[in-house]
Amino acid sequence: MLTAVALAGLGLAQGTITLVGAGATFPYPLMAKYGDEYTRLTGGKVRINYQSIGSGGGIRQFLEQTVHFGASDAPLDDPRMKQVREQFKTNALNIGYALGAVVPAYNLPGVKEPLRFSGPVLADIYLGKIKTWNDPALQELNPGVKLPPLPITVVHRSDGSGTTYVWTDYLSKVSPEWAQKVGRGTSVQWPVGVGGKGNEGVAGVVKQTPGAIGYVEVTYAKQNNLAYGAVRNKAGRFILADLASIRAAANVPLPGDMRVSLTDTPAPDGYPIASFTYLLLYENLSVNKAVKSEEEARALVEFVKWILTDGQKHNEPLTYGALSPVAQQRALALLSRVTYGGKPIGKEIVGR
Amino acid sequence: MRRLYSHFGDRLFAFFLLLLALGVVALALLMAYELYRGGSLALGRFGLLGFALGREWDPVVQKAFGAWPYILGTFIVSFSALFLSFFPALAAAIFAAEYAPRWLAQIINFLLDLMAAVPSVVYGLWGIFVLAPWLRDKVQLPLYMWAAEHLPGLLPLLGVPTGYGLMTAVLILASMIVPYTAALARDAIALVPKEHREAAYALGATRWEVMRLAILPLARGGIIAGAFLALARAVGETMAVTMVIGNSHKLPYTLFGGAATMPSVIANEFTEAVEDLHLSALIAVGFLLFLVSMLVNSTAAYVLRRQERLVKGVL
């Protein structure tokens, strides 16, 4: 045992495999947990080295094949999928393994109960069309609440982020004007508002400014005791983001490749501003220069399978949404398509 | 034999020195080249001038990239910060070097050095949680209310008083660069030969006249060098500015409203810039920042050289 530890420490132990991944910062705590647990589970044989350099960097490292897997808050878009097909003669797989939700957090002195928002109202606030808290549109959604005549200070992320992508993706779906003027992206041209750097920057400005509204990851809002509102979903219900309603958001018919936006979900009890966060794999792992041997390829598939099955139990304690049964099925089906050197190792490992 | 050996050693040493020195130069050139190459996609699309003067930065709908709001923001913020900090810093330096008793001077010097050592993220946090709310409640809101009543023409210049914007960034940055100006000015004043002071006193000059006529003219080079060092630091400062400036690139900028600088947009958008053109535009902003820094430094070098010649003339 002692020698094994010593050897592993030197990196000389026979059969020690390090899987390298890079990408989104949002799932970093979860990835770190997965890595620790999985290394313990395999008795130190498989180590995970995840670098949270941002989704943009993750996609780039994935395409440059310096990593075993990439990670991104948004799936690869059509041009990137086409690029992979043409350049490497294989498909890229976008495997969703956890869900995140974005909530409208606010600072309204004297208002105790959670406010209710609707998509169009949020879009109008962020377009600068609704300027005060006692606007009729807001009052109509919150009949029992005495809203103060405070001006609304709009706060957004200044750094590019998956959180911004999810938020603007939702606003684009519920407001044609937003879709046309601003659109969806990790950084957009904001019509109004103050930009805070990172979740902590947005939360800081919201906390310090009476009348401010900002969007943050639900995890962050909970940890920092920010008040956040319920949002009306497609079915017309006001849903407060929690683990159950986030999981329910993905309980809808999903396309085979999982490249889907879950915002404005049709699920009746689903929270409307939720999204998958993705692992990126090559379908034919032999083309990935970072994968040096079949052994490594198998270890990678085993690891992803573990994330999608047993590993899911680590999601909710860290306030990430776990996969719904439909989503888990889709993800495993995608993983089973993986091959290495012509061998269907995905089918073999997933089917076992 | 021994002589030949040492001769060889000398030459070897000189050779290595040359190699290392050239390495530094090569590094700077390589950096400029890499930045240019990385930004060439955006620079090629919009042209160097078109990119530098473009006012739109929209990675999503128009996919247009222009750095003008960031260049303007950088210049406004750093020159205002320098202007605000210069005289207090100079006063602190003169006081510490000439007027203060030794124990007090030591305390001042220690605190100045400490100010330079505080990480910029700490200044930024202090800005978010203390300075910005205070400025909003005690300065911006009263001023805004007063203007709304008495001078409505001023309102478009003031902008929305949220606390997070140009004014806060300038104040934070000004306090961050005080120690640079002050430390160099202090050393420059201390280096002025004693004979000059004594000569001036012997002529019957008062303390202030000695300072004005005998010391400051000779120390001017060091003082200016300190100011330029502070300016270079201000141009490149990223973290603290990004945290309090409000990060809006909508022109025209207002006194209270949000703004953005070149380092802040790079820090903000680099990690998640997925599209090639977006990434390239950010690197191109880095290239422009490199050019601006070079401009500041070469101006500093020019002013210093002229000053040195002047001082030599006096001596």
TrEMBL record, chain A:
Molecular function terms from GO: phosphate ion binding
Q: Where is the PBP domain?
A: 17-309
Domain of life (superkingdom):
Bacteria
InterPro entries per UniProt: ABC_phos-bd_PstS, PBP_domain, Phosphate-bind_PstS
**Any Pfam family:** PBP_like_2
Any one annotated GO CC term: ATP-binding cassette (ABC) transporter complex
CDD domains in alphabetical order:
PBP2_PstS
Name a single GO biological process: phosphate ion transmembrane transport
Q: Which family does it belong to?
A: Belongs to the PstS family.
The protein depicted here goes by the name: Phosphate-binding protein
Species of provenance: Thermus arciformis
TrEMBL record, chain B:
What top-level branch of life does the organism fall under? Bacteria
Report the membrane topology from the UniProt record. Multi-pass membrane protein
Q: Which UniProt keywords are present, listed alphabetically?
A: Cell membrane, Membrane, Phosphate transport, Transmembrane, Transmembrane helix, Transport
Localization per Swiss-Prot or TrEMBL: Cell membrane
User: In terms of one coarse class, where is the protein primarily found?
Assistant: membrane
Spans traversing the lipid bilayer: 12-33, 67-95, 107-134, 154-178, 213-235, 279-304
All copies of domain ABC transmembrane type-1, residue ranges: 71-300
PROSITE patterns, sorted:
ABC_TM1
Q: Which GO terms label this protein's molecular function in UniProt? A: phosphate transmembrane transporter activity
Task: Name the Gene Ontology biological process terms.
Answer: phosphate ion transport
- Say what the protein does: Part of the binding-protein-dependent transport system for phosphate; probably responsible for the translocation of the substrate across the membrane.
The family classification in the record reads: Belongs to the binding-protein-dependent transport system permease family. CysTW subfamily.
Q: What is this protein called?
A: Phosphate transport system permease protein
- Source lineage: Bacteria, Thermotogati, Deinococcota, Deinococci, Thermales
